[in-house]
Amino acid sequence: MKKRVCLFLSFAALLSAGAFAYYKSPAKVVTLTDAKGASVGTATIEQEKKGVEIHLSVSGLAPGEHAIHFHQTASCVAPDFKSAGGHFNPTGMHHGLNNPAGPHAGDMPNFTVAADGTAKTTITDERVTLEPGLPNSLFANGGTALIIHAKADDMMNDPAGNAGDRVACGLIVP
After folding, report:
1. What is the DSSP letter of 126?
2. Which residues are CB-neighbours of 152 under 8 A, at least 6 positions away?
3. What is residue 49's three-state secondary structure?
4. Element holding 8 (H helix, E strand)
5. E-assigned strands of the chain?
6. Angle at 87 between CA 40 and CA 120, to 5 degrees
7. Number of CB atoms found within 10 A of residue 131's CB
8. Cα gap 149→117, rounded to integer Å
9. Domain 23-172 is of which CATH architecture?
10. For the segment 50-100, what is each residue's pLDDT rounded down to a tens digit?
């Protein structure tokens, strides 16, 4: 009898361990377009144990450092993409990865575009998820937008780190 109880408890423990596994959704592929509506590349967003990874592959951008952020509204109305609203910020923090009162959930490290206008890189954002129903889900309130800015983010100043114009946009919708 003790052996059966031990076997049952061991089996129950294995089953419950699966209930605490992280949410692993399918990857979300986001097409990024410029102000003229031309595709400049893709961002493949994958759920990780803590946050998401963005596998970015772009071309046709100005060389140099660029900011990239998740914005609060799933809208990419050209030419300025201001329809995407401010940075995704469900926790009400201040802007900037280096700001002691921040960062926004949508703040991410800058990335570099090569002299030929291309970039292939992976960026991690540990403050967001693809899991539906959570306040920090990129699908919250109908979705969000991924924005590439003309300049680098200064990682400090509200509301957007002096990152300049929005030069590319992609929708992240359920």
Report:
1. T
2. 64, 65, 66, 67, 110, 163
3. coil
4. helix 2-19
5. 28-33, 39-47, 52-58, 64-66, 68-71, 111-113, 119-125, 144-149, 166-172
6. 30
7. 16
8. 14
9. Sandwich (2.60)
10. 999 999 999 999 999 999 999 999 999 999 999 999 999 999 888 888 888
**Token pair 């509204």 in the structure block, residue:** 73
Distance CA 32, CA 57 (A): 10
Q: Which amino acid is at 170?
A: G
Which is it for strands 39-47 and 28-33: parallel, antiparallel or unpaired?
antiparallel
Which DSSP symbol is given to 171? E
Q: Please return the burial class of 154, using the count of CB atoms within 10 Å of its CB with bins 0-12, 13-18 and 19+.
A: middle
- What does the alpha-carbon distance between residue 2 and residue 8 come to, in Å, rounded to a whole number? 10
Q: Taking the model in full, what pTM does it have?
A: 0.84
| The residue type at 105 | A
With 0-12 / 13-18 / 19 or more C-beta atoms within 10 angstroms meaning exposed / middle / buried, residue 48 is: middle
Going from N- to C-terminal start, the domains of the chain cover 23-172
Per the listing, tokens 């059966």 go with 4
Q: What does the alpha-carbon distance between residue 126 and residue 69 come to, in Å, rounded to a whole number? A: 13
Q: What is the DSSP letter of 84?
A: G
For residue 5, the model assigns a pLDDT of 35
Taking the C-alpha atoms of residue 151 and residue 164, their distance in angstroms, rounded to an integer, is 5
User: Which of 10-24, 82-96, 107-121, 147-161 shows the lowest per-residue confidence on average (mean pLDDT)?
Assistant: 10-24
